[in-house]
UniProtKB/TrEMBL annotation:
Family listed: Belongs to the ribose 5-phosphate isomerase family.
Positions of the catalytic residues: 106
Name of the protein in its database record: Ribose-5-phosphate isomerase A
High-level lineage: Bacteria, Bacillati, Bacillota, Bacilli, Bacillales
Organism of this sequence: Bacillus seohaeanensis
Short name of one Pfam family: Rib_5-P_isom_A
Top-level enzyme category: isomerase
Record function comment: Catalyzes the reversible conversion of ribose-5-phosphate to ribulose 5-phosphate.
């Protein structure tokens, strides 16, 4: 297995050590989370009693295949622990997320949790967010004018396409990938983007994570706030 993927697996599997019997778990999205789900599925088969709330249709499908019991916000008022991936993590645990296009549901879940643990391979730890294009979920109606307004904040928004088809999120929206490069004040940028009519949510997760599990060349480091 390629080193980066192996590190994702190591970080994902480590995270299940924080899951306790009876917990409601927020299940993030992405390839690192998928490794966590595999391990969690094994623990459920051995008798661990938890319920998960998935942050994407992909996660929901995999969790069901693995026999992980699921619930939703009509049945629970809060989440004990959320475990999610990220595309970039800075020194203050600010996150850039949404590479997989699930940022809105992820943010709802991650902010509803008592604790958010982020699982990443070492390449995701950066001194400053912004090398990865920031995903911004927007309403399809008038996305062109929304993109023009966003561009005035200092980027060239690119409509996300997969195999030449416009990518549509689980919420029926579009994603604009916005290359800002070095973000000096991510919170400020997030607030400005949220003021743009047509923007549903940004991939900037500020001050939400409390732990980051990093695996680099098979070595695990658990960073806490
Ligand atoms: C999806 C996300 C993912 O958590 C993020 O893209 C990381 O993915 P991966 O673990 O596959 O590198 O934010 O919207």
């Amino acid at each position: 297995m390629e080193q980066r993927n192996l590190d994702k697996k190591i970080a994902g599997e480590e995270a299940v050590n924080f899951i306790k019997d009876g917990m409601t778990i927020g299940l993030g999205s992405g390839s690192t989370v998928n490794w966590m789900l595999q391990k969690l599925g094994e623990l459920v088969k051995e008798g661990l009693q938890i319920k998960g709330i998935p942050s994407s249709r992909k996660t929901e499908r995999l969790a069901k295949e693995l026999g992980i019991p699921l619930t939703d916000f009509s049945k629970v008022a809060k989440i004990d622990l959320a475990i999610d991936g990220a595309d970039e993590v800075d020194d203050y645990f600010n996150l850039l997320k949404g590479g997989g296009g699930s940022l809105v549901r992820e943010k709802i879940i991650d902010t509803a949790a008592d604790e958010l643990i982020i699982i990443v391979d070492g390449s995701k730890i950066v001194p400053q967010l912004g090398a990865f294009p920031l995903p911004v979920e927007v309403l399809p109606f008038g996305w062109e004018i929304t993109a023009t307004t966003i561009s005035k904040l200092g980027c060239v928004p690119k409509l996300r396409k997969i195999d030449k088809e416009v990518f549509v999120s689980d919420n029926g929206n579009y994603i604009l990938d916005c290359q800002f490069n070095a973000m000096k004040q991510p919170q400020n940028l997030h607030e400005k983007l949220k003021q743009v009519v047509g923007v549903v949510e940004t991939g900037l997760f500020i001050n939400i994570a409390s732990k980051v599990i990093v695996a680099k060349h098979k070595e695990i480091e658990i960073l806490s706030k």
